[in-house]
Design goal:
alpha+beta, 279 residues, 16 strands
């Protein structure tokens, strides 16, 4: 196995989103986590109807997680996968904190792309958004990192590769070991906690509930594996902390926004799928 050749074929550039508390209110259109989103005047705040951990089902506003000024990340997007102008917004409903196992979870997370944002203004939160689900404001800075997938994401596609040799060769070729990193980032590969998610995205896309997967035929598995190759990581958000504040997904977990390659090329963020993984 020529690992260097394999790595050259599958490597991707991640845009790491480093955060720090905002010392003062950030200017309109700045990349950031939390705070009031800077939105166009006609923006309609997204809601999701779902059951919370107390068994209460109702429609709730999504929490604003992040906005990315795409003009700030162009120099780091080496594969030119994202637009290099406009704004990208990420929302997630944190009361129900859906895992993305169920097709019914659609709408619990939303991504919005505004190509020509015009005048952006800090937008007040909906009155029914609970204070516990409002993320404080953090300023962002960016850096790039070349990444390879965790072995579990590769194993079904490269059956001749063993995990121990793969991880060893990654280090020898200068890619390091990123299994324990708590990163928030755009693009690149997910830092897996509970296994490959691209196959789950393919299952969900075909209406299959992933919490209790029915027995699949070899033909179905082959089709789903083929479909899974179309899904790539758009955004990973891990634990965010500042003093006594901690934003955590599950038990020290992360949320992952996945998108089809075709949708990414066509700047269509309507069908992004979210999965939560934790320890």
């Amino acid at each position: 196995m020529d690992f260097q050749k394999l790595f050259d074929q599958i490597k991707r550039t991640a845009i790491i989103t480093n955060y720090e508390p905002a010392e003062k209110e950030l200017p309109a259109g700045a990349s950031k986590f939390g705070g009031k989103p800077h939105l166009p005047e006609d923006f309609v705040w997204p809601y999701y109807e779902g059951e919370d951990f107390g068994g209460v089902t109702k429609s709730r506003p999504l929490s604003f997680l992040a906005q990315i000024n795409l003009g700030e990340i162009g120099e780091y997007d080496k594969e030119n996968e994202l637009p290099h102008s406009g704004m990208l917004y990420f929302f997630y409903e944190m009361c129900t904190m859906r895992w993305g196992f169920d097709p019914k979870d659609r709408g619990c997370a939303r991504v919005f792309y505004v190509e020509n944002p015009g005048d952006l203004q800090p937008t007040a939160f909906p009155g029914d958004l609970e204070a516990d689900f409002i993320v404080p404001e953090f300023a962002l800075s960016f850096e790039q990192k070349t990444e390879l997938p965790d072995f579990e994401e590769l194993a079904e596609r490269e059956t001749d590769v063993g995990w121990d040799q793969y991880d060893e060769e990654k280090v020898l070729c200068g890619y390091g070991d990123s299994e324990d990193e708590e990163l928030s980032k755009l693009l690149g590969y997910a830092n897996l906690i509970q296994g490959d998610m691209t196959f789950e995205c393919a299952e969900i896309d075909r209406g299959i509930y992933c919490g209790n997967v029915p027995e699949l035929s070899d033909e179905q598995k082959e089709q789903l594996l083929f479909d899974s190759n179309e899904w790539v990581l758009l955004f990973q958000m891990s634990t965010v902390t500042d003093g006594d504040y901690e934003l955590m997904f599950g038990d020290c977990g992360s949320i992952y926004f996945y998108i089809k390659k075709k949708d990414l090329r066509e700047r269509n963020f309507e069908n992004v799928w979210l999965i939560l993984q934790c320890f």
